[in-house]
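Figure S4 source data
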Amino acid sequence: MPPLSSRKKNWLRFKIKHKFMIKYKDQRVGVFVDVANMYHSAKNLYSARVNFKEVLRTAVDNRKLIRAIAYVIRSESDEEKAFFGALDKQGFEVKAKDLQIFPGGAKKADWDVGIAMDAIKLADRLDSVILVSGDGDYVPLVTYLQENKGCQVEIIAFGKTTSSRLINASDDFIDLGQDTKRYLIQGHDQGAIKKLFPGKIRRLAGGQQPNNLNN
């Protein structure tokens, strides 16, 4: 029998770990959604919007929800208010931060540090932390929560734009791309895009590429 490649070994380790993943009715879960990461993935891969209501339903999976937080970028446009309001009605606590524009025109819009801090602060009240993002920068956070807080860590994202390192580090991974009819909202006319996401971030998204699966 030929030796297994490192990629196949990593996948085999993940499948073994997933086999022993524990979910039960009274399990306390916290859901942390990197909205920008999910938006870019859905737009670049499928030219569609994310159905965050269904994502939250899948994340909770009939368990005890402690907190569900959606992290967004604010540009003070009228259109984004409707989007933020929709997230709130779907059961999310919405946290917003301003788009940073540096001298020279460079822009920064991410919540990596904020999400990590909230997850660590809430970890003592949770049995399972659910990160809705495919960003490989969260790997150290996943490891810390598992080894220092005793939490299971689940990842929910689109498989094609999710870091393989993040998948392998997690206790469970749900690929939203396996059921696009459930997790995506098709029909991206200009009005729908404006209501979904701030104009400044849409312009940023134009040049952003999906995460490398091998990261």
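Figure S5 source data
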Amino acid sequence: MAHIEQHGMSRSLAIYGLLLELYPRPYLQQHRAEMLQNFQDLEQETPSKSALWLFIGRDLLVSLQSQFTRTLWGQTAMVVLVLAIVLVYTEYHAAVARRHPTEACCFGYILGWFAGWFGKQWQASSISGVPSYIRSLPAQAMIVVSVLGLVIAVAGVGSRTQSHVIIWTLCYGFLLAWGPGWLGSRRQTRS
């Protein structure tokens, strides 16, 4: 069933070989030849290309999930997906007055997520010239709370305008995400 190209390799096998690059290098060094041979056998036995690629797609998703969720981009993709669902829900089910604070909270959450992630990376790095007690979780938490307090104070806490509500929700989203960003990065640095 496999269409053999001039060089003896099917187009599907070439594409699968490229997809294998998604796997971690040590895993590929040990299993690449076996995976390519298994694909070739499966390609010859499967009557339909679509059935073959559905199976391969599902297998790749399951196989790569654990590796992908340990990376910054993997965890960020999950956060962005959840925030996108929140925004879509808000767009269709909330009043216009609540939509802008929700957007601000999501934006603050993304900023807080990256701040927490990179804060943990900074704390874990031993090459930084900053003393370790300043890079610690309590010190970074105090810095984050102080900066957010300053942003809120500069924005004028006493006023009840829409822009102040947006500043509050942006800071709230930032604070909500900073801890999970720190912990998500902590999981990655342990692996």
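Confidence is low (pLDDT under 50) at residues 1-6. The radius of gyration is 24 Å.
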